[in-house]
Amino acid sequence: MERVVVMGSIFLPGSVMDPFVSALRERGLAAEWVVPTAADTARAVADAYAAAAVRLGATTAIAHSNAGNFVPVVTEKSAVKRVVFLDAVVPPLGGGSWPVVPARMAAPLVPTARHGILPPWTRWWPHESVRPLFPDDATFARVDAGAPCVPASYLSSRLSASADWSAGLACGYVAFGGTYADEVGVAEGAGWPVRTLDLGHLGMLQDPAMVADAVVPLVTG
What backbone phi and psi angles, to 5 degrees, belong to 185? Predict the structure, then answer.
C-alpha cells in the first residue's frame, strides 16, 4: 500500500485536509496529513515536514499551497520519490535560494502584523473574497477559528536547494484554477502530468472526491 504524506500549508489548520485524506484512504492509499506547528523559520518548518515523512514511512508527498516550498528538503531526508503539487508553489527546478513567501505577497502583509504575529490566513483579504473558497459558512467558521497565527518573521524566510533536487523524482501537478499559472507552466515545461480542476484554491474542501480522483493516477501510475 502506497504511504502518502499530505503536506498542508502552515497558514491553515490541518483539518482542512481531513476530507481529502479520507477520500485518498477510500481509494486504497495510506495517507496522513501533517502541518508543522513551529513556524518561526523556514528551516524549522522544513525539518518538521521531513520528520513527519520519515515517521510515516512515506514514499509519496502531496504538497498544497505554501507547503510546496519544502519538497526539496522532504525528498532529501526521506524515502519520498513521488510528489504531487496541489495548487502549490514549485521551488526553482534549477535550485538556488528563494523566499518562502514572494515579495509581492509579503509586502502588503507586513503592516497587518500585531506584536509580530500575522492575522489568520482567512482574514488576509475581505470576507467576500475568501468565503467562496469554502463549501459553506460552517466550514469557513471552523477553519477561521482554527487558522494558526504565524509569526511575521516567516515572511522573510528563505530556503535553498541543490541544482539537482528534482532529479529522480516523479512529479505531477494538480491546479485548482489560475492562481498558480506560473507554476503550471513550470510543470508543463518539465514534462510533468498536469490536471486543472476549476475548484478554487481550497479545492480539496470543495470536492475532495474529485481531487482524489485526479491525484491517485499521479501517485500510482
Answer: -60, -40
What letter does residue 43 receive in the DSSP assignment? H
Cell of residue 168, nine digits: 529522480
Torsion angle, alpha carbons of 196, 67, 202, 123, to 10? -140
Structure-block grid coordinates of residue 121: 490566513
SS3 6: strand
3-state secondary structure (DSSP) of residue 63: strand
Query: pLDDT tens digit string along 37-89?
Result: 766 688 889 999 999 999 999 999 999 999 999 999 999 999 999 999 999 99
Give tens-digit pLDDT for 11-30: 999 999 999 999 999 999 99
Domain ranges of the chain: 3-100+161-220
**pLDDT attached to residue 220:** 87
Residue 125 DSSP symbol: S
For residues 27 and 216, is the Cβ–Cβ distance under 8 A?
yes
Which CATH number is correct for 3-100+161-220, 3.40.50.1000, 3.40.50.1820, 3.40.640.10, 3.40.720.10?
Answer: 3.40.50.1820
- At 188 the three-state DSSP class reads helix
